Amino acid sequence: MAGAALEPRPTSVAEALRAARRQAGTYNGIWSWIATVDHKRIGMMYGGTAFLFFLIGGIEALVMRLQLATPNGTIVDADQFNRLFTMHGTTMVFLVVMPLSAAFFNLLIPLMIGARDVAFPRLNAFSYWVFLSGGLFIMSSFLTGNPNGTIFEGHLGAPDAGWFGYAPLTLPQYSGGHGVDYWALGLVILGVSSMAGGFNFAVTIINMRAPGMTLFKMPLFVWMTLVTSFLIIFAMPVITVGLFELLFDRLFNANFFNVQAGGTPLLWQHMFWLFGHPEVYILILPAMGIVSEVLPTFSRKPLFGYPFVVFSGVAIGFMSWGVWAHHMYTTGLGSIANSAFGISTILIAIPTGIKIFNWLGTLWGGSISMKTPLMFSLGFIAMFTIGGLTGVTHSVVPSDYQQQDTYYVVAHFHQVLFGGALFGLFSGIYYWFPKFTGKMLNEKIGQLHFWLMFAGFNLTFQPMMILGLLGMPRRISTYSDGYGWGFWNMMATVGAFMIAASILTFIINVVVSMRSKERAGNDPWDARTLEWTIPSPPPAYNFAEIPVVTALDDFWHKKYIEKESGVVVPAMAGAANGEEHHGDGHGIHLPSPSYWPFVAALGPVIMAFGFIYDFALVPAGAVILLIGIYAWALEPATEPE
Amino acid sequence: MATVATHQDAHSGPLDNRKLLMWLFLASECLFFGGLIGTYLLYRDRSTDIDGPFAHDTTINGIHYTGIYDIPFTSVSAFVLLMSSVSMVLALAAIQRNDRRGLQVWLACTALLGLTFLAGQAFEFTVFVHEGLTLDENLFGTTFFVLTGFHGAHVSVGVLILLSLFVMAVQGKLTHKQSLNVELAGLYWHFVDVVWIVIFTLVYLIR
Amino acid sequence: MRLGRLSVRYVLFAALLLLSVLLFSGCGVFSSPQNTFAPEGEVAKMQRDLFVIVMIPALLIMIGVFAAMIYIVVRFRRRSDSDPIPEQVHGNTRLELTWTILPTILLIGIAVPTLWGVIKLGNQPGAEALHVTVVGSQWQWTYEYTDAEFLDANGDPLITTEFYIPVDRDIALEIEALDVLHSFWIPKIAGKTDAVPGRSNDMWFRADSPGTYAGQCAEFCGIGHPQMKAELIALEPGEFEAWAQEQMSGEPGGDGAETPESPTASP
């Protein structure tokens, strides 16, 4: 009681809400977005931006598929092709799947744990603006990254050394121009954004949970976000070191990857994959969390073996640090290292398998409603099963000598990152869309979207598995007749355009649904977690009153009563939202809007341009960053009432 | 139940948000410096430049080369940085007992010691460059300057934070209610100090 | 919602139909000069066999999971909104332990052949092996025959841009790179090994029958990567000796004392 007594206490909840509304309207129009620190608005900006990047990355993929559809393709030349596949990988990993996951963290975490915002709302805004500026920075390499001229003179810029950027191909003597500089500097900037997000969500989840929400009453998505945040916190510095070393080599003639001076290119690979394998789980764990929320809701059953699923997620988080060298079997690490990493790769399949079986266990005996969100989650399980099993084949070191760097690997990781992560994310989009817009996505168009995407996906990537076994290497811009690869490549290209059609269907669905006048209501799916207790879309302050949590799936337990016989009946009407009032309304403190995170985020990107074009810009960018940070640190975080 | 509910925005964790953030940040920094130190150690004896300056005394083909490291000098600057951690502790103690004057003195003292360390590093770098060791000269120069340079950059940021706190203290904007600010700066400062002890041991002392 | 269920079946049938047509028609879409499933050498055979050993249980598990999923979705589908709420089963520790331990055992089963294969490939090739240093550079492979019989008067090895070997003899490779990473790969003969600047990686293989085997660089190495082919020509030992003699005599240093004797080494 002592802590609460310090708070100035408005006389009623209504007054507190009015005060919160007044305060939320400090800025209008576009400024209200630039200065926003509301996690829901930031989440939507993350999602929208990532989706635009997704379209760009998708177009890159389509061009590549057209090029490879037949032998001796002539749509693009080798140089352009290299730039396209580099940007496709970089875009999809860093500008699409990671920020889409971040969008879900932003939208959902405070709502799921019963908080009014994240722990550091302005840091959160900073994360977004840095992500946006870093993304635009990398994209701007298309214009001027080519050593022979700009895109206006017909020279496609962009980095050309692969999203993995293996040294020494990234050194200036092998990759001229500024493409790789853009890439490395851009990834450093995006790393800052991800790390800021990782810190923010780790602190939010550890510290900001509603009363009564112990760790083992957290929704599974919150758990997976926590694990992901820790992976980001620890993995990002490793790649940052690698990128700094590369940049020193490129910009200042340092010798980290200079073989003549005694450096070794393998250092880069170790650093990249020491980051890169946890990164794979950074991409997939949030989707696993989404699926673990969707399945219980649509089968009206709790997640089967919640502790097992939690622990397997945590175990994956730890084990992801011990498998990086399975990307490097063929680099000559020696039999002992290869055996060790082969076995650790075998072991990481165990917690992954547990999850799949537990998901099936959740569905078993349920009352399954085949709505679009569930369809995407089922698609996730099916495709991820294939992804996981093909992953196990990579643990067999000798046979991996054949599959390494072939289309088999391309098929495998798309199975995990597209069939897995993206299907999971789309499941989440269909599931939570009504919560944040107040409108349902159209169910019929949604089913069409799913089946188009599912069929297109399989048509694209299963042939790639066969192509890999038929000996087609990755990253080749063309292949001649007589290799027997034409048929499967054509199939994959057709599939790719089917996927494109499915994405178009999705866009149409969003437009149609947003125009519909039908309102979704607070709880359209009969769901189980806290975000469904509040209006759709949620008010700026989220919860008029901070909920008190008594159980896992708390909302469900407020709606339904389980009798001793195992029969479940609805609780009495009104009990769900009519929880007894705790009497006093407390002051609702919303963080004030601030445009300083936006200003601060301009700093790093200006510095990055400086490193490429004119060092004089570097201190200028640093000063802007400092001004932003100082102004941000000195302004009051919450407006006085 | 009602008592729990009245703790609005109750923190279920034992640590303040900002302190937890700082600890996580430092954990992340461990990996950052781990990567740089790992690179240095991996490349320790791989430099192919047999004429360039050597870190330690070396004899190759009967020719003796004097090591470039000036251990006594660097020991002194390491000691200076170590002492700055002591004054940092005293600054925190001062603000916690609301001793405004003590706070100003010890913050200034910590910042000055930090600046002294940076001056020492600048001097050391200058000497090395004059003796022919540069970033692009050989693998040793590359790994040495990047590792110690990044550490120096961290110290510089720390000094900037300390000076900012000092100005706030002089303006009277830093009272014991804001002692967390000093505590957080202290956590960062001690971390940077500990990292230097690791670097000093692994890079300078161990041969 | 009947539509959704029907389309599940349609898609499944269509996929099965397509798959079986492809599998049994044998209409040539599964053949390629780089087909890893048509090995022509001991190493590639072993690698294919290991893959199949893992692929079969993996396919069985996949079919099991898919079948279970379809069965569950069909059986437990919500017929109407008035369906009773199912029993809230939170888990079953014994069941969960079972599906933790069973895969663990299965996976350990995979570890055994893996280790066997790693050890076998890590073994040194036989004493009578032919030693060749393969050097990758942007964008071609060169081959240095470093055995004593291929050295010229100055002690320099025979260097070629075509890779000739005898059949039924271990070939021991040292793989190196001059500029960026490359990866040496002849799919029908053996899996790949990376060429890393500043390093020398070992690899060995053996070709079973004479022929020309296609291969290509498997590590991205710049604009010329798709054109960086590696062709392996395996000859009967006698023919190989003849080829070697011809190469040696063609060399400026190969004349004089080493002029050809008739091939005595042929079987």
Annotate the secondary structure layout.
The complex is a heterotrimer of chains A (641), B (207) and C (267).
Chain A: H1 2-5, H2 13-24, H3 29-34, H4 39-68, H5 78-112, H6 121-144, H7 179-207, H8 220-252, H9 265-299, H10 306-319, H11 335-363, H12 372-394, H13 397-403, H14 407-437, H15 443-469, H16 486-515, H17 554-559, E1 560-562, E2 568-570, H18 596-613, H19 617-634
Antiparallel strand pairs in A: 1-2
Helix pairs in contact in A: 4-5, 4-6, 4-16, 5-6, 5-7, 5-9, 5-14, 6-7, 6-18, 7-8, 7-18, 8-9, 8-10, 9-12, 9-14, 10-11, 11-12, 12-14, 12-15, 14-15, 15-16, 18-19
Chain B: H1 2-6, H2 17-42, E1 58-60, E2 63-65, H3 71-96, H4 100-130, H5 139-170, H6 179-205
Antiparallel strand pairs in B: 1-2
Helix pairs in contact in B: 2-5, 2-6, 3-4, 3-6, 4-5, 5-6
Chain C: H1 2-25, H2 42-75, H3 93-122, E1 130-137, E2 140-145, E3 158-160, E4 163-166, E5 171-177, E6 182-186, E7 190-195, E8 201-205, E9 211-213, E10 232-235, H4 237-250
Parallel strand pairs in C: 1-5, 4-10
Antiparallel strand pairs in C: 1-2, 2-3, 5-8, 6-7, 9-10
Helix pairs in contact in C: 2-3
Characteristic terms for this protein:
heterotrimer; A: 641 residues; mainly alpha; 2 strands; 1% strand; disordered N terminus; B: 207 residues; two-stranded antiparallel ribbon; 6 helices; elongated
Oligomer description: heterotrimer
Task: Enumerate the spans of chain C where pLDDT stays under 50 for 5 or more consecutive residues.
Answer: 252-267
Q: Report the biggest beta sheet of chain A as strand number plus sense, adding barrel if it closes.
A: 2 strands, antiparallel
> Which residues of chain A sit in consecutive blocks of at least 5 with pLDDT less than 50?
1-10, 574-585
Name the shape of chain A in a single word.
globular
Q: Helix and strand string of chain A, N-terminal first?
A: HHHHHHHHHHHHHHHHHEEHH
**Average pLDDT metric of chain C:** 86
Q: Which radius of gyration of chain A do the C-alpha atoms yield? A: 25 Å
Radius of gyration of chain C from CA coordinates: 27 Å
The chain pair with the largest interface is: A-C, 102 and 100 residues
- Neighbour order of strands in the largest sheet of chain A: 1-2
